[in-house]
Write a structure and sequence with these properties.
Number of domains: 1
Structural class: alpha/beta
Bound molecules: iron/sulfur cluster
CATH class: Alpha Beta
Helix content: 25-40%
Strand content: 15-25%
Largest sheet: 8 strands, parallel
Number of helices: 10
Shape: globular
Mean pLDDT: 91
CATH topology: TIM Barrel
CATH architecture: Alpha-Beta Barrel
């Protein structure tokens, strides 16, 4: 079994590793501004699921320069992925969104524009905008599905049913945009079988990438309240890695795996605390995958 890591995909497709620059393009989400709800998804901290993004909206240029400055010690390359991560980045005034995204994508060092959003925020005007942008350079749209199970979706207050995700995937694929799906492993009430059902489901859809993310319990979330009331338990590292291995084996071989762990903000992390040591987790993942022949000894670095 061999899986396609993001780094390998980038090298094969762009000839080099591209580094992600986290940018801010939105400051809210319909699940927070009262449209669908005002407390957000149960696991989402005040930062809108993107605590490493720029603190406040600045100009595209200043955000890019700041973001490059933050990665300059780790990255010597020249190409980047502009990643609009926090909140819902296709929600709001479409003209203003297009202006910001166009300015970003036209920068020569930006090779890919990656936009995180919700599947219920992809109306016709937004799709037309994404179509125009995708003609300039590749556009990826990241959809926070988390689970296919409606009961869990209700519990985490995701705010849309599964068919909305399916409609979004077909609309995005019609305009040639690559779709990356976020799934959370270890959601309260979900068994291993349920997690694998979500993986199987997305594997049978026309998606190009997946982010597998451990459930993090973060400060300032309703999930933290539930955790402190001992309403659910988090996964141990060994449990997580074993489930992760099965998820990878269930994924279609051409789906790019963008993430195997997750980057929760350590300042806010309540549980599981083992996940704060990303290097140790990745070493354990690599060891387990090698021992179980899950990736033929290929080290995961993405
Ligand atoms: S949709 Fe995203 S930004 Fe909005 S509340 Fe949920 S996780 Fe947070």
């Amino acid at each position: 079994m061999q899986y396609l890591s993001l780094n390998r995909y980038l090298r094969d497709t762009y000839g080099e590793k591209l580094y992600k620059l986290s940018l801010m393009g939105s400051v809210t989400c319909p699940n927070r501004d009262g449209t669908l709800g005002d407390r957000g998804c149960i696991f989402c901290s005040a930062g809108g699921a993107g605590e490493f993004a720029a603190e406040a909206l600045g100009s595209v240029e200043s955000q890019l320069e700041d973001a490059k400055g933050r990665v300059q010690d780790k990255f010597a390359g020249t190409g980047y992925i502009a990643y609009y991560q926090a909140f819902t980045n296709t929600y709001g005034d479409v003209n203003a969104l297009e202006e910001r995204f166009t300015e970003t994508i036209l920068r020569p060092e930006i090779k890919v524009l990656s936009i995180a959003t919700r599947p219920d925020c992809l109306g016709d005007e937004v799709l037309s905008m994404l179509h125009r942008l995708n003609k300039i350079k590749p556009v990826w749209v990241e959809l926070g599905l988390q689970t296919i199970h409606e009961e869990t979706a209700g519990y985490i207050r995701r705010g849309y049913p599964l068919f909305v995700f399916d409609e979004a995937v077909s609309a995005l694929r019609k305009i040639g945009v690559e779709v990356i799906v976020h799934l959370i492993l270890g959601l309260p009430g979900e068994t291993e079988e349920m997690i694998l059902q979500s993986v199987d489901y997305v594997s049978h859809r026309d998606i190009q990438g997946v982010k597998l993310q451990l459930l993090h319990v973060l400060e300032n979330t309703d999930l933290a309240l539930e955790y402190r009331q001992e309403r659910f338990a988090v996964l141990s590292m060994e449990e997580y890695i074993a489930i992760l291995g099965k998820c990878v084996e269930h994924l279609r071989a051409d789906i790019v795996i963008h993430r195997l762990t997750g980057d929760g903000d350590k300042r806010l992390l309540i549980a599981p605390l083992w996940s704060g040591d990303k290097k140790r987790v990745l070493n354990a993942v690599n060891r387990y995958f090698r021992e179980q022949d899950i990736c033929q000894g290929r080290r995961y670095r993405g």
